[in-house]
Design brief:
By secondary structure, the protein is mainly alpha-helical. 47% of the residues lie in helices and 6% in strands.
């Protein structure tokens, strides 16, 4: 079995395990939907925070509802490996194209990020066609050498930038089998 396939299977198993901890919905009396309690914590817990500085003068006007966190979470998870579900959720809510999920501690990830670090070019191409925002990690995985060069010329420190889950540019290039980009990255910073 190839390394890419085994990584994908491992991720799918992990995603499946995460999804099994979500509440189970069932129809109660009169057709009302009820949910059983989840087997683990119900969801993310926001870190405590208290300003120790003057609050900004600008006050946001929350004119629209935020996207549902569970829907964003599902979209980001499915965008790693399931094109059909990615399409289905994006058709249901087009604004998911730019949505990101904080997996904790500021580990932000979009659907494009997930598809990129797994080397899933079909999903990456679909998301880019729908308006996802290209970044250096996606460009590295897609073997877009000119784009990667331009990013690194503009901001050389990006060679040490980490994507979601701490995944490096070199690893993104490896996952996409992006030989030209990987070799270029190696000329800037050699990775074992």
């Amino acid at each position: 079995m190839s390394e890419d396939l085994s990584r994908r299977n491992l991720f799918q198993l992990g995603a499946g395990a995460a999804l099994t901890s979500l509440p189970v919905l069932s129809l109660g009396q009169g057709g009302a939907t009820t949910a059983s309690p989840p087997t683990q914590t119900a969801g993310p817990v926001e870190a405590p925070f208290e300003r120790d500085y003057k609050a900004p003068d600008f006050k946001p006007a929350w004119k629209k509802q935020q996207l549902n966190r569970l829907m964003v979470q599902d979209f980001v998870i499915f965008a790693h490996f399931d094109l059909a579900m990615t399409k289905q959720l994006l058709a249901k809510e087009p604004k998911l194209i730019t949505a990101t999920m904080d997996w904790g501690g500021g580990d932000w990830e979009s659907g494009l990020n997930g598809a990129s670090h797994l080397g899933n070019k079909d999903i990456v191409n679909f998301l880019l066609e729908k308006g996802a925002r290209m970044d250096i990690f996606c460009a590295a995985m897609m073997n877009q050498l000119d784009a990667v060069r331009q990013f690194l010329t503009l901001q050389p420190a990006l060679i040490d930038a980490l994507g979601p889950h701490g995944i490096t540019l070199h690893k993104h290039a490896q996952m996409g089998k992006a030989k030209e980009v990987y070799e270029y990255l190696q000329t800037i910073k050699k990775i074992g």
